[in-house]
Amino acid sequence: MRNLNINGESGLEPYTPTAQNSGGPAASDGFYSPEFRGDLGAGLLDLHAMDDTELLSEHVTSEPFEPSLFIPGVNKAFENDFNATTNWQQKEQSDADASASLFSANEKEISSTRENNVAKIKVVVRKRPLNKKEISRKEDDIVTVSENALTVHEPKLKVDLTAYVEKHEFCFDAVLDENVNNDEVYHATVEPIIPIIFQRTKATCFAYGQTGSGKTFTMQPLPLRAAQDLVRFLHQPIYRNQRFKLWLSYFEIYGGKLFDLLSDRNERGADTTDNDRQTRIEGAEINKSLLALKECIRALDNDQIHIPFRGSKLTEVLRDSFVGNSRTVMISCISPNAGSCEHTLNTLRYADRVKSLSRSGNPKKDQTVNSLPPSNRDVSSLSLLATADVEDVYERQPEVKVVDTGRRPVEKDAYTFDFDKQPSTFIGREESGMASGPTDREKIEVNNSYGGSRSLRVYSSNSQNSADMEEKVRKVSPPRRKVTREEKPEKMGNRTKKDGGGSDLSTQNSMQSNSNNHNSTNDVGRRRYNPEPPTDGNINAILEEEEALIAAHRKEIEDTMEIVREEMKLLAEVDQPGSLIDNYVTQLSFVLSRKAAGLVSLQARLARFQHRLKEQEILLSRKRVPR
Ligand SMILES: Nc1ncnc2c1ncn2[C@@H]1O[C@H](COP(=O)(O)OP(=O)(O)OP(=O)(O)O)[C@@H](O)[C@H]1O
Fold first, then answer.
1. Under CATH, domain 10-40+67-534 is a member of which superfamily?
2. What spacing in Å lies between the alpha carbon of 374 and ligand 1's midpoint?
3. Residue 425: which of 413, 438, 412, 434 has the closest Cα?
4. CA-CA 20 to 30 A from 246: which of 113, 564, 581, 610?
5. 131 Cα to the center of ligand 1, angstroms
6. Using CA positions, which residue lies closest to atom 28 of ligand 1?
7. Burial of 41 (0-12, 13-18, 19+ CB in 10 A)
8. Which atom of ligand 1 is least distant from the CA of 395?
9. Which of 375, 307, 371 lies closest to 501 in space, CA to CA?
10. pLDDT tens readout for residues 381-408
C-alpha cells in the first residue's frame, strides 16, 4: 500500500483568485464581497441557509452503465491498493479462463494481505461541480484536482482584513473531479471489490460528506451495478460449481431499530403530529450513529483494545467492515464552493483519518480480526452506505431494490432486530436446519434531504459458499448465516475458545449460541438471545460529552472571533490621534481576561473528557480478563 497522504501540510500565500479558480468567477466578486461574508466573516457561513440542490449537470444521473471503462491513473491506484483484477476485458475471455485468473489473483491478494497487512480501506474523494446557485452567487471553485491529489484553497482574512489563501494539500487513493461520471466512479470504487467478496471477504463502500455534496448522486447507481456484476460472477463455472448463494437485504435503521424494507411492513413513526420533535429525535439518532462510527474509527486508530461497535446500530451493522477479512471503500463527497470550505476541509480530514487506519499496520486490529467468531468469517458481504457529516442530516424517501439471480424464485420475508430489548427478539422465517443471526453486515444507506423524516437505510448483499446446504433458495431477505447440523459442534467449540474477546464479541457469540439452540430444538421462526450487560450507557455518555466538547470548542472559536474584532477596534481607536491610552489599557486587560477565561474553561472540559475516556478504557480492559 502506498502511503500517499500528506494531509496537514498547508502553506500561506497571498490571495490570487485566478490562480486557484478553475472556472468560477473572480473571488473579489464573490466570496470576499461584504454581503457574502456577512457578520460571521470568512469561513463561518451558515451552510444550512444555502440550497445546493440545483447543479448544472443533473442530467448525469441517468447515464447508462458502460462496463468497459477504466480510469487511467485512478484504476492503477486502486489495483495497487486492493490488488484486484476485475478488468472487464477478462469478461471477454472464456468463463473458465476468466474465473481462474480472477481466483488466483484474489488468492494472491488475500495472502499478501495476511503477510503485509496491506490497506483494507481505500479512500476516494469525489468533487461535484459548482451548482447554479453557487455560480449565480459568483462563488469560487476552491478545489483543484491533480491525479490523486487535491488542493483546497481556503480563503482567509488577516487581522488587518487583508485577504489571503491558505492551501491545504491532500493525497488519497483516488480523487475524482467534477468531470468524472458515475460509471467511472463505479470502476474506481465498487467494481474491484466484487471479486474479493467471493473469497469470503466482507466488502463495504460508504459515502460521507456534507449535505448536498453528492452522496446520493454517487451511491444511487452503485447497488444495481454491483448486483449485475455479482450475478455475472455467480454464473461463472468456478462459482457455480461451489454453489454460491446470494442474499440481498435492504434495511433501514430508524430510531435505533432495524426495519426490513423488503417486507410489506416498511411502520416507523413517520406520521407523528409533532414533526419538529420527530425531526430532532431522528437527527439525534443519526448524529449518535455517526459519532459512534467516529469513535470506532478512533479506537481502531488508537490501538484500543475495545472497539465500541455497540455504540449504535449503525456501528453494530458496520462492524464487519472494519474487522476480519474486510475491504472498505470510503467515498468522501465534497462541494467545491468557497462557502463550503470549512465542511470540505472537515470531510477531507476525516477521510485522511480513515485512510491512516489502513497504513498503521496495527497488529491489534488483526487480533480483533482473529477473535471474531468463525461464523462471521464464512460469509462474504457487500455493503453500501451513504452518510452525511454529523451536522447535516436529512432524509429522502426510501428506494427498494431486490436482486434476483434469475435462476431461483425469490420470496420476501419480514424481520426486525431490536437490540434494545432484553432479551431481544428476532422474528423471521428460517429455512429448515439452518441458523442465522444478525451478525452478517451488509449494505447501508443514509439518505439525507431537506424535510421529512430521517433514518439510515441499508442495502445488503451476501454471497456464501453453500455446497453443503439446500439447493433451493427460497428467499432473499434477510442476510443469514446458515449452519448445517454437521457444522454445529465445531462452531460451538470454536466460539467457546474465542469467547474471551470482549463485550462486542460476546453479544455476537450469545446471539449465535442461541441460534444454535434454536436449531437443535427445530423451533422455526422465532429466536431469542440475551446480550451481555451493555456498556452502552457509558458509551452514550461519552458520545454526549464528545458532542458537548465539540460544541464548546465551536462556541469558543466564535467568542474568540468576537474578541478579536473588539481588539481590532481597540487598535483602530488607539491609533487615532489624541486617543486615551488609559482607556486602551483597561479595555485590553478586560478583553484579554475574557479570552483567557474562555480558553481555561475549554481546557478544563477537554481534560474532563480525556479523563472519562481513560476511565472507560480502564473499565473495559478490566472486563476483558479471561473468564
Ligand atoms: N458529480 C455530480 N455531478 C452532477 N451533479 C451532481 C453531482 N453530485 C451531486 N450532484 C447534484 O447535486 C445535488 C445534491 O446531490 P445529492 O443529493 O447527491 O447530495 P447529498 O450529499 O446526498 O445531499 P444530502 O446529504 O442533503 O442528502 C443533486 O441535485 C445532485 O444531482
1. Kinesin motor domain (3.40.850.10)
2. 40
3. 438
4. 113
5. 9
6. 53
7. middle
8. 27
9. 371
10. 566 665 544 333 222 322 222 222 222 3
